[in-house]
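Long-time lurker. I teach an intro course on protein structure, and each term I like to show students one example going from raw sequence to a predicted 3D structure in token notation. This year I'd like something fresh instead of my usual example. Would anyone be willing to generate the tokens for the chain below so I can use it in lecture? Attribution to the forum is fine with me.
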Amino acid sequence: MIPDPSVSEWALIVALVLARLLVPLLIPRFELLIVVALVLDAVDNSLLAAFTDVDLGPDGPYQSVDKALDIYYLAIAYVSMLRNWTSHAAFRIGQFLFYYRLVGVLAFELLDSRAMLLVFPNTFEFFFIVHAVVALRWDPATWSPRFWLWTAIVLWVCVKLPQEYWIHIAQRDFTDTVADHPWVGVLSALGVLALVALFQLVARPRMPEPDHGWQLAAAPVPHRPPAPHGVPWRALAEKAVLLGLLAILFAEILPHVETTALEVAIAVVAIVAANEAISARFGLAELPALLVVNLGLIFLASRFFTPVENFPLGTALFFAFLISVLTWLYDRCKPVHEARFATAPRPAARSAPV
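-- Reply from a regular --
Happy to contribute to a lecture. Here you go:
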């Protein structure tokens, strides 16, 4: 990555990667930490460019890591929805936005077409942030489905489409554009001020009274729901689809992966089934045990597709970490989601600014 890196360069690289791996793990408890993950994603290239000699070009090694970590924290945000979101409408919209973007990024990697990132914009991230902001003072379940639908539409059309076009189609950098055309910066600042004024004068007076005081942390889960009888086929299917899409995407992004998308999908389905069988026999495994088991399963699965001397240990560790973390979170959050909407009456929706 760097020819003869210094200790300080390695320290910065390791610190950034660890921060981008560990901060998202707190999102299920503190959802607004997704903003920290977003900021880390925004500043890491600038920090590396300023303080290291890392190749940050489109074919550089860090770009693969960067793209993989982007999807990683969004996947954890999605799983945290299962644990925390009380609005069924908001959850369904967020679920659609997440999978829609995931398919789009996969299409981009497979087709090498930047247009896919415009057609499949990352509206999910901003929608998640809006929900987290609402949850600071209100129960999102009491906000109408129409509000959540219009929130997604406005974010999609007015925020993400222009942003995705600017970044991926026009391929322009905002800071460089402002340096070349200062009026763009002035216009952007005026636009932000106009939005703030619009919120203060129009939206805020129409907002309902808060349901509770400031609540930065998600409410604790009161108890672990009982394990379902028999094989939870729907949950198992979604977990296989989720991890399969992510694994195929990472296989396309990360270097030294020589297996095809079909081979990755087959391996992931086998690993998910093996994890489910182990959980059914011995109970839900803790994360370290899952990590060890899944690394072994990945090694065994790789024997069908690659020679043993080509086994990329670093990439395998990342895959094992990804599968283990998401399996561990999903198995604990999915029953909470199902119990919430199976037993709890949905609060009556009230008016909210749209």
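Some talking points for your students: The chain has three domains: 1-84, 91-220, 232-342. The two ends are 48 Å apart (CA to CA).
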